[in-house]
């Protein structure tokens, strides 16, 4: 498609992005990456390319990732069947070892390697490094699933200061050294607030918040926290979108200016969100914020 553009058209596209490049230069943007966008090698390559592009134009990108399907795959190889309670993975001692191995090992280092191969400078860490994510038992029924009790932002800020793209796997720990599996969306919301991010981008497998969940054309481009609560009551926000929007609201309360839920399956959706008027997905903002455009 890009090959069909004339040089003048390409130059025009770059010129139109200039105000956004200026706006986000030096700002921190947290990207929560997971779901279907991680399963397609082609999409994974594009997402990493977009992250490196933002980094090259001066955006301080922090990548927080999950890896549920990869965990399931390895559990099956070990003869363990994944079990869930209220949508959360039951994590016994053997399972938390697998989760730690897959997230902080294979998935984390694969993403770091991809970013480096695209020309970026990345460093992979887990929530256990520098006690970045402190946690406690969330529910005894779930085993080693953690509830976040604190975030130490310093390891991330140090990496950003040195010019790295931090790539964070969401494994937390307590003062006794026990490891915990932490929900990726929840971790991203807490991390974004703790490091003073101006924007949190939540990549998922639907277009955003829809008035009719079966019709992508009913996408709601922007909502306030109060409107989100109304949509909860009306049943518009339901099922798996409930905890995701809850994390968006938590991030806003923690000081993040804008949170976006977007479809990670759409090529270059991150660039569309950051560098265009229209943006991508649904933007969640605080009640006092008024925006004339999605940007």
Tell me what you see in this structure.
- This protein has 295 residues and is of the alpha/beta class.
- It is built from 10 helices and 14 strands.
- The chain has helices at 7-24, 36-39, 41-56, 68-77, 93-117, 154-161, 184-194, 225-233, 241-253, 269-275, and strands at residues 28-33, 60-65, 84-85, 88-89, 122-126, 133-137, 146-151, 165-169, 171-173, 179-181, 199-204, 222-224, 258-263, 282-285.
- The strands form 4 sheets. Strands 5-8-2-1-11-13-14-12 form an 8-stranded mixed β-sheet, sandwiched between helices.
- Strand 6 (133-137) and strand 7 form a beta hairpin.
- Helix 4 (68-77) crosses helix 5 (93-117) and helix 7 packs parallel to helix 9.
Number of alpha- plus pi-helical segments: 10
Shape: globular
Mean pLDDT score: 87
Give the helix proportion (percent range). 40-55%
Radius of gyration: 19 Å
* Total beta-strand segments: 14
State the separation between the terminal residues, measured CA to CA: 25 Å
| Widest sheet: strand ordering | 5-8-2-1-11-13-14-12
Main sheet record? 8 strands, mixed
> What proportion of the residues form beta strands (DSSP E)?
15-25%
Structural class: alpha/beta
* pLDDT < 50 runs, ≥5 residues: 290-295
Give the H and E element order: HEHHEHEEHEEEHEEEHEEHHEHE
In brief, what are we looking at here?
It is built from ten helices and 14 strands. It is of the alpha/beta class. The model is unreliable at 290-295 (pLDDT under 50).
